[in-house]
Design a protein that fits this description.
The chain has helices at residues 4-15, 20-27, 31-39, 55-64, 69-79, 86-95, 158-172, 200-208, 225-228, 230-238, 247-262, 274-281, 377-382, 387-398, 405-417, 420-433, 438-454; strands at 116-128, 131-142, 148-153, 178-181, 188-190, 197-198, 212-215, 296-302, 308-311, 314-317, 326-332, 335-340, 343-349, 358-359. By secondary structure, it is α+β, with helices and mostly antiparallel strands.
């Protein structure tokens, strides 16, 4: 098979009036091959379709039909009496890019050592403790050396963002002055791209490390391709075939994988591993501050009637003396502290998942004392006086709540108030008719008292 350069040479020699026999002898090809090349000298000219003259009309109808090519074909036939096959119509649209924007070449971004770092997140479905959960993978990379760091979180708010960036910058042992992020509301409070306004909370966090956040333009993910591309590698290498016991195990394995695999593998674009390139970049990074404050978030809560405060659907116990009072809840990444009037009253290990858990400390949140069991003092004073009264007390307790303290107390008052004879007669009659209403019992006692003492 002849190369394009050989075919071009044959055509140029023919244009110089060199005959076919001489061309075949010089280039050592057959005369038939030379004749074939000369006959096909116009084969590079693209074939023009007879329907190309309707391109402007097709483009107008596409706007009218919202890009629906089936409707465009019907309109061509019905309104303009132009018949174009559907496959031909789609070929024309693809060839002349009538539907999609023209593709442009993607350039390359060159970064000097210590110039920029990039941060982004993406969701994954993984198995933690034999349960499939959706997690947020946060990662940060240095644009020059491609050194990578990642961690996983149940959700990703500004609190988790500050926790992650603190760990990531400690892992990198330095800071770049510019951090490229996307346009999510975690970092950006208003606007997009160059016009984005960074949230004051995140801007203040960046000042601690002498860095600033910048958002890339909308629909321009290539601007942070240094961090976009590793997500596919994380999915196909780190997460493939792995199970994790809990969040601590997941993040510990993630950091170990970054150190031993991702940053140790030689990259073709670098000609070395990210760890080796990092050694050349480290001196250009901004040093970490001498003191790095621990990331926390303050929430204000009212202690409920069970002496608990709620934080992200989980409840933490506090001393009972604080019921109904306002307390400050400090949420750290791995712990929760409760303060009342600048005094720490409780501290717990933080439950990172929203699973409606109750966390208590028996020392500061003792269990509720069980209710008293056995007969009350009123029952003890009534029992043993008469056999009928014992039966009445037992039936009255069956029809009362708990130990029946209130009705037994009233029955004891009736026994103390009225004479013994009328009282016991009324008890016997109530047992006979199964009447256990104490108001009606008192009416019976009064009637017997009238008959015995006043002879009415």
């Amino acid at each position: 098979m002849l190369t394009p350069q050989m075919e071009e040479t044959i055509k140029q020699m023919h244009e110089l009036d060199i005959n076919i026999r001489e061309i075949a002898r010089i280039l050592k090809v057959s005369r038939n091959t030379v004749r074939r090349i000369l006959k096909e000298k116009d084969h590079l000219k693209p074939k023009k379709s007879q329907n190309e003259e309707h391109l402007e009309l097709i483009q107008q109808l596409m706007k009218k039909c919202s890009g629906n090519l089936v409707r465009v074909q019907e309109c061509l036939e019905q309104e303009y009496n132009i018949s174009i096959a559907y496959t031909t119509l789609t070929w024309l649209v693809r060839k002349f890019q009538l539907k999609e924007p023209k593709k442009t070449r993607s350039g390359q971004y060159a970064f000097a050592p210590g110039e920029e770092m990039q941060h982004d997140t993406t969701p994954f479905k993984i198995i933690i403790g034999n349960k499939k959960v959706v997690v947020q993978c946060a990662s940060l990379t240095l644009a020059y050396s491609r050194k990578l760091y990642m961690q996983f979180y149940p959700c990703f708010t500004r609190f988790e963002a500050k926790v992650f960036l603190t760990k990531a910058l400690e892992f990198m042992q330095g800071v770049c002055p510019r951090c490229i992020v996307d346009n999510t509301s975690v970092v950006v409070i208003y606007g997009t791209g160059p016009d984005a306004i960074i949230a004051p909370e995140m801007e203040a966090f960046g000042r601690i490390y002498q860095m600033r956040f910048e958002a890339h333009k909308i629909n321009d993910p290539n601007r942070k391709a240094r961090i976009e591309r590793p997500f596919d590698y994380i999915c196909k290498n780190f997460l493939a075939g792995r199970n994790f016991q809990d969040w601590e195990d997941l993040n510990a394995q993630a950091q170990s994988w970054c150190e031993s695999v991702a940053n140790a593998k030689i990259k073709r674009s670098l000609g070395m591993s990210p760890e080796q390139a990092y050694l050349m970049e480290k001196s250009a990074l901004i040093s970490l501050p001498l003191y790095i404050p621990e990331v926390y978030k303050i929430e204000y809560r009212i202690v409920d009637s069970e002496a608990y405060v709620q934080l992200q659907t989980n409840r933490y116990g506090v001393p009972e003396r604080l019921i109904g009072q306002k307390v400050e809840v400090y949420m750290f990444w791995d712990k929760v502290q409760v303060y009342a009037k600048h005094e720490k009253v409780a501290e717990y290990k933080r439950v990172k998942e929203n699973k409606r858990a109750r966390v208590t400390d028996p020392k500061i949140h003792p269990p509720i004392k069980p209710k008293k069991q056995g007969p009350c003092k009123e029952e003890k004073m009534l029992i043993g006086y008469a056999q009928s009264l014992d039966r009445y007390v037992a039936e009255l307790k069956k029809r009362s709540r708990g130990r029946g303290v209130q009705p037994l107390r009233r029955l004891l008052n009736l026994k103390r108030t009225y004479p013994e004879g009328p009282f016991l007669k009324a008890i016997d009659k109530s047992l006979h008719y199964k009447m256990y209403n104490l108001s009606r019992l008192e009416d019976l006692i009064i009637n017997f008292v009238k008959g015995d003492f006043f002879n009415i």
